[in-house]
Write a structure and sequence with these properties.
The protein has 253 residues and is α+β, with helices and mostly antiparallel strands. The protein folds into 2 domains: 117 residues; 109 residues, 2,3-Dihydroxybiphenyl 1,2-Dioxygenase, domain 1, CATH 3.10.180.10. It contains 5 helices and 13 strands. The strands form 3 sheets. It has a 6-stranded antiparallel sheet with strand order 1-2-3-4-5-6. The chain has a 4-stranded mixed sheet with strand order 7-10-9-8, with helices on one face. A hairpin with a 2-residue loop joins strand 1 and strand 2. Helix 1 crosses helix 3.
């Protein structure tokens, strides 16, 4: 048994490929299982230990039978998958329709490979920092009165106090659980594609209101399932306004 480059771990007639996958708005460690079938090497199983929808596949490149795991019953999808591989690989291969590959499984080789698979996946998995969301975006502005007229007067954001420990001029706005922080400087920021985005309930209505207030609307590349456009604040900072008509990943991509 050896561990070649590229996240591939051999175990007798099987090869485990480990990776950290991002798919359809979900993510998590994944294990692909390859076995010789006839004269070809075939992906016979795949375990996607995703955060929201953990599941596994029989014959993912063929019939692709898909089985979801209940988060209420399976608290650690990776541990469950590793145990399933160690205890039932041959049985799963027969269920997937690969009896010859199942007959060639070496349980000892699989057991010896499992710690390597786990170690490789733990290394690939981002550290659990407890991140829960994006708290704020910061932009540079050059005139406080003009900035307040735009962010408070036109966009309707609510100004909130900033920390007393700040010894430099800033303006903070609150929008639901997120904030926009304005940092006052003598010169505007260099123009770039950099921007932040605000959700809107109705993009068409927002366009109309902003046009009536004399704000230039810039249309942009279409995203399926969304309606969006760009505006700029008086200092040229780009702001995207976007209405999601379907949840990201639930419709065409």
């Amino acid at each position: 048994m050896n561990q070649p480059k590229g996240g591939m771990i051999e175990a007798g007639n099987l090869t485990f490929q480990v990776e950290y996958r991002h798919f359809g708005g979900d993510r998590g460690p994944a294990i692909r299982v390859y076995a010789p079938v006839g004269k070809k090497t075939v992906q016979v199983l795949r375990f996607d230990c995703f955060e929201r929808d953990p599941h596994y596949h029989y014959d993912p490149d063929g019939k692709n039978a898909h089985w979801s795991l209940s988060r209420a019953e399976v608290r650690d999808p990776l541990a469950w998958s590793l145990h399933k591989l160690e205890a039932s690989t041959a049985e799963m291969l027969r269920e997937a329709g690969f009896p010859e590959a199942a007959a060639g499984v070496d349980p000892g080789a699989v057991s010896r490979a499992i710690p390597l698979v786990e170690a490789a996946l733990r290394e690939l998995t981002p550290p659990a920092l407890g991140l829960t969301g994006i708290h704020h975006a910061s932009v540079i502005v050059t005139n406080a009165e003009r900035a307040r007229s735009f962010y408070g007067g036109i966009l309707g954001l609510k100004e909130v106090p900033y920390p007393s420990t700040f010894k430099f001029p800033v303006i903070w706005y609150q929008l639901e659980e997120e904030q926009v922080h304005l940092i006052l400087r003598n010169e505007a920021d260099t123009f770039s594609p950099r921007h932040f985005a605000l959700h809107v309930q109705d993009a068409a209505s927002a366009r109309k209101v902003l046009k009536e207030k004399g704000i230039e609307i810039r249309e942009t590349v279409e995203i399926p399932g969304a309606d969006r456009f760009f505006i700029s604040d008086p200092d040229g900072n780009q702001i995207e306004l976007i209405q999601w008509k379907v949840p990201w990943g639930a419709g065409p991509m």
